[in-house]
Design brief:
Strand content: over 45%
Number of helices: 6
Distance between the termini: 46 Å
Structural class: mainly beta
Radius of gyration: 24 Å
Number of strands: 34
Length: about 475
């Protein structure tokens, strides 16, 4: 959706969008485009906002109170023997932050606890066990930092929870479950997520773009559980719920909408206890919305190539290699293009509506062929990455009825992306969702400052004076090593 709306906004020269400059702080980062890293974070208990901005020499920590006024700051020297990436953060009970710096080989994490009152830091180190396997992702939830991995040579996933100077490891066992494609051919869980369909983490507070949602294995982080969805079998969506407290793994199966003709591509998206499913080929597009707990269908839509899609709130678009989208005039042309990519959909919700993008995406590599003067093959140029995306947008109200586009104002996240798409001098970016608005934090290379802007839904109120910018349970704890 944000790619489409950014395009629509860019072609309009009179767009006013809701954004406010909150504050600005001089940082003077050393070559931020090369060395810089930036994270915006909220302490969910105190609602204080923190900024972690670093170059290759120092880390700058800015603390803002819940009214977003600068309350404290701390600049510390980085003492790593090699460059590390900021994987994430957590907050202690006293409110002080901890940063987790990962090594390039993903075998070690340097953990630095910062005290803003005493202007001191304390360094710990954690080495991943030999059985850790591939790191899938890291994330924060409820002021705690997590790392999820696929256990090496086992049908297990490992969740590392970093808290109170310890790392607690939880194991999720997938041995009791079977994994089969539509031809009833079995595959192990290890092979599925390591080699065939690596897991992609979806965003809970942001629109997930189609190049991410087209993945067949997805992960969603909730307050007390992790949802995994698998769409490698075109006949069904296989879903697992991983309980972070008990380590219990439960399975659900959702049949995919069945097109009248084959072949078809299928996919799904999970949002707020609902499963959105799509099936498509060159003849037909099917959409199903189901309640996650009961499996009951809430809404079903069928569109053939001879139909008009009456519920779309945008034109149907074809986009090649991220260039300007081209309009597709008929449903038949849209479905023909959709049949050449991986069908997918994405859903995002604000206070009023659920916004759904229907479409598909494919990435591939292309070779340029050179011919000599005599017409014979002279060689091949370098391999180039290419992409193709087709899509259109729609929206649902709280009763899951389609909404006309005239009722919808621009979204905060679209306003934010429009600003980024039309602004220069931005070297580092971090986006934070707080309550009902977004905070865009970025480093301005001209003013050499960290700038924080607030973005809300709707058009800008000019009277405000804002600037306009054109099942086995296994748990154990491991100590952290002090450096």
């Amino acid at each position: 959706m944000k790619k489409l709306l950014l395009f629509l906004l860019l072609i309009s020269q009179s767009i006013l969008f809701s954004q406010t400059i909150l504050n600005s702080s001089v940082l003077n980062l050393n070559k931020p485009s090369e060395n810089g890293q930036l994270i915006n974070a909220e302490n969910v208990k105190t609602h204080e906002v923190y900024v972690f901005a670093s170059d290759n020499k120092t880390i700058n920590i800015l603390k803002y109170n819940k009214s977003l006024f600068l309350a404290n700051q701390f600049k510390d020297t980085l003492r790593a023997e090699q460059k590390r990436s900021m994987m994430g953060y957590s907050f202690d009970e006293d409110g002080n932050p901890t940063l987790y710096w990962g090594s390039d080989n993903h075998k070690n994490i340097r953990i630095i606890k910062y005290n803003l009152e005493t202007k001191t830091s304390n360094t710990l180190s954690f080495d991943f066990p030999a059985n850790t396997g591939n790191i899938i992702t890291s994330f924060q939830k409820n002021n705690t930092f997590y790392v999820l991995s696929k256990e090496k040579d086992q049908e297990h996933m490992l969740l590392f929870e970093f808290k109170n100077d310890k790392c607690e490891i939880r194991m999720f066992n997938f041995t009791p479950f079977s994994f089969q494609n539509e031809k009833a051919q079995s595959v192990s869980f290890s092979a599925l997520v390591q080699y065939h369909y690596p897991i992609e983490k979806m965003e809970s507070e942001d629109f997930s773009s189609l190049d991410k949602t087209e993945k067949k294995s997805k992960m969603y982080v909730l307050d007390d559980r992790i949802i995994l969805t698998f769409d490698y079998n075109t006949k069904r969506t296989q879903v697992f719920s991983l309980n972070i407290k008990t380590n219990e793994v439960t399975e659900k199966i959702f049949d995919t909408p069945d097109t009248q003709t084959l072949p078809k591509t299928t996919n799904s998206f999970y949002l707020e206890n609902k499963l959105y499913q799509i099936s498509a080929n060159s003849e037909q597009l099917l959409f199903s919305l189901k309640d996650f707990d009961s499996g009951k269908s809430i809404k079903n839509i069928s569109v053939s190539k001879n139909d008009t899609i009456t519920f779309k709130n945008s034109p149907m678009f074809l986009q090649i290699n991220g260039e300007k989208p081209q309009k597709l005039k008929t449903t038949a042309k849209f479905l023909k293009q959709l049949s050449t990519v991986n069908a997918t959909l994405s859903a995002f919700k604000n206070r009023q509506y659920t916004f759904v993008t229907f479409g598909g995406f494919a990435s591939y590599q292309s070779l340029s062929v050179n011919y000599g003067p005599n017409g014979f093959l002279d060689g091949l140029n370098n391999v180039q990455n290419a992409s193709k995306m087709v899509f259109f947008d729609t929206a649902l109200n709280s009763n899951f009825e389609f909404v006309k586009d005239s009722q919808i104002e621009p979204l905060a996240i679209d306003n934010l992306n429009y600003f980024m798409g039309t602004s220069r001098n931005i070297a580092l970016v971090s986006i934070l969702k707080v309550t009902d608005f977004y905070i865009l934090g970025y480093y301005d290379t001209v003013s050499k400052s960290y700038i924080m802007r607030k973005f809300t839904d709707g058009f800008m109120d000019q009277s405000a004076g804002n600037p306009i910018i054109n099942k086995a349970i296994f748990t154990k704890s491991l100590p952290l090593n002090r450096n």
